Structures are given as structure tokens and as C-alpha cells.
Fold this sequence. Notes:
Elements: E1 11-12, E2 25-26, H1 32-35, E3 53-58, H2 60-70, E4 82-88, E5 91-99, E6 111-119, H3 125-139, E7 144-149, H4 156-161, E8 164-168, E9 192-197
Parallel strand pairs: 6-7
Antiparallel strand pairs: 1-2, 3-4, 4-5, 5-6, 7-9, 8-9
Amino acid sequence: xxxxxxxxxxxxxxxxxxxxxxPPMKRRDLPWIFVGCPGCGGRxxxxxxxxxxxxxxxxxxxxxxxxxxxxxxxxxxxxxxxxVCLMFAGEMVGAAVAGRPxxxxxxxxxxxxxxxxxxxxxxxxxxxxxxAIVRCAKAMGFWRVITFTLPEECGGSLRAVGFVxxxxxxxxxxxxxxxxxxxxxxxxxxxxxxVILLGEGxxxx
Length: 205
């Protein structure tokens, strides 16, 4: 049994409680300021941090298993420096992988790239994971953290942590060739490049 403070699947009727025309819905889908947070039992807004939302270290195997099930356009990562998961009321609701930069020009030995990020949509989940990775990276001596998103993704969770968008990449052709058939593991078009600086880079030392 999951350690919920309040049953998230309890159907609650708010029609006589407030002026809004809200049909009976499950607690997980209603404003928690009215019905209570399923995780902690307190009354707070759904987009506010819950005391039961916590980040934990996790193996690449466990992180990849989650990413394989929940990431919209990427499969498991091949390697990592470290990985973290997000727990809500004792249940895993997200995971992120941080590793060496994929692009060789970014791989200066002290740069870290967030290569995978996926949650089940829980409020503030991505920003919580990005923030944890940035703090770990700074403690480990990395001078910057980079990551990439699709052009249609707004990047609100990245901006909340302090990342800055540096514009769009050029994209790449992909690995498939007439004489060497390959299937690309993810999108090969242009992407938004994000970076957060944590200290002086190798060229500044």
C-alpha cells in the first residue's frame, strides 16, 4: 500500500463548496488548497512544493527503466556520471540522467549535460530534478551544466532553475546512409540549447 496521507483516487464533489462549476473528480485532479494534498495531507496549491516530494540518487539501470517507459522521444541513456529520481509519497514519479556532453566541442572535462529527463507530469517535478543536478554538479566542480530541448518545449522548468537559452542548434543529418542503414534513436532536427554557469571555465583558469 502506498503511503498516501489522503486517498488520491477518492472522488470528491465540490459543487456545494465553491462558486465554480466543478464536476465530481478524483482528489489528485482537484485543487489541493481545497481538498488536501494526497502526499502530505496539507492544503497547498498544486504547483507548490510538497513536503513528500524528494530527490534521491538512483542507479542508471533504474533511471533508464523509468525513462524507457515515460520519455516522449528518447530511449535509455548509454552511460552517466550520476542519475537521480523523484519520489512522491514513496512512489517514483520522475528520473533524470546527467553525463558527459554528447557534443565533442562541449566535452571539456568539466561540463555536465542532462541527457535524459522524464516525469509523470507532477507539478514542479522537472525543476526539482534540474535543481538537484545543478547543485550536485557545482559540488563536484563542474563549471557548467548544459541540456537540449525540442523547439516547441517552452523550458519553464529550466528557467526556474537559472538556465539560459542560447538559441537553436543547426540540427544534424542523422546516421542513416544508403550503404549503412541506421535508425536514429531520437529527434535529429534543431534543438534549443540551454546552459547554466556554475563558475569559471577551463579557458578562464
